């Protein structure tokens, strides 16, 4: 068994604190930008987005991720708490971001950006699907360092005790999700865009479906949110939102096939 003793604060100088959580988001976005430009140069016949488009899109993506992720967490996971403590809404560095909220945010920001710049929405989201697992990977690592979203009790030799939570050894579910939703998803999506002639838009839909499947697998090993517990049919909020995402992605598939 391992004991989780990571400090969520990397540097603490007086009133200035640099947290691993913030660095994970910044590093994930910047690395995603760099890799996205590499894909544009390498696969110019498949990706109809310019490097300048991607540079201009960065701020739109950040706004969509941060606002959507935070608002989604508030409404999906802890509305009562934030309604009673509105000052806590801005304290993103303490954690509390929803992937599905961020997903809604980035879809909306991508839609607005593509219309404003007269580029294909689906071509843009296909590119986002290729680079998003990078940010997801670092985000899950940040969850682990923050000792949040802990796993269920386990006696496996790689289990971790999270002293901030309790004294029981638990699955490092954050690492599982980093490997599934981040690394595995990255490999699959990027192999597909390089090796196949998959039609524009299908990669975005496949990203939604695969992420949702991987997320539901991760939820098996993860404690449900304390303020919510299990909901319908002993499923967590993350699993329910993932099922809804798969259903919506399937509707998009029907739309494309009909078109």
Descriptive terms for the model:
single chain, 259 residues, mainly alpha, three-stranded mixed β-sheet, two-stranded antiparallel sheet, 8 helices, 5 strands, 63% helix
What profile does the largest beta sheet have? 3 strands, mixed
Query: Can you tell me the residue ranges where pLDDT is under 50 for at least 5 consecutive residues?
Result: none
Portion of residues in beta strands equals 5-15%
Oligomer class: single chain
Describe what this molecule looks like in 3D.
By secondary structure, this protein is mainly α. The protein has helices spanning 20-42, 51-77, 79-84, 99-117, 121-145, 173-195, 202-220, 237-258; strands spanning 2-3, 9-13, 16-19, 160-161, 169-170. Helix 5 (121-145) runs parallel beside helix 7. The radius of gyration is 19 Å and the shape is globular. The termini are far apart.
Brief synopsis:
This protein has 259 residues and is mostly helical. 63% of the residues lie in helices and 6% in strands. The strands form two sheets. A three-stranded mixed β-sheet has the order 1-4-5, with no helix packed on it. A two-stranded antiparallel ribbon has the order 2-3.
Task: Show the helix and strand layout.
Blueprint: E1 2-3, E2 9-13, E3 16-19, H1 20-42, H2 51-77, H3 79-84, H4 99-117, H5 121-145, E4 160-161, E5 169-170, H6 173-195, H7 202-220, H8 237-258
Parallel strand pairs: 1-4
Antiparallel strand pairs: 2-3, 4-5
